[in-house]
């Protein structure tokens, strides 16, 4: 894989330290990120998302979902088998995993469902009312009302 040097961003971008840190950590994490289990991320509506992970072979009780400071952590611990098996070919992974997802600000986990070997985690970006843009009405002060009335009285043609 390619390595990118983000140090010039630190020197020239004031106030974007967090973004540069995220880009830097993503480039490092990409190199050692496990590919198991496979997953999809889909947009299901405006500001609504779904992560679907293929977790065949795991019972619902072996799966764990945790949200901690803008991180979604999905993990599983496979219970050891009671009987010893002799495999001629073992293509189905029987190991635990931990998959981490970085969540944007104000993204909340709504629900999780397990069906047919797939784990579905539904997310939604919910922006608080205090952070949404709002329109501020503009009022006219009493002194400017008097000024307009005086101008109309003194200059009847202007009205």
UniProtKB/TrEMBL annotation:
The keyword Transmembrane is annotated on this UniProt entry: no
Organism: Cellvibrio japonicus (strain Ueda107)
Domain SHSP positions: 30-141
Keyword NADP tagged: no
Pfam families in UniProt: HSP20
Keywords tagged on the record: Stress response
Tree of life domain: Bacteria
Family from the record: Belongs to the small heat shock protein (HSP20) family.
PANTHER family in alphabetical order: PTHR47062, SMALL HEAT SHOCK PROTEIN IBPA (PTHR47062:SF1)
Official protein name in the record: 16 kDa heat shock protein A
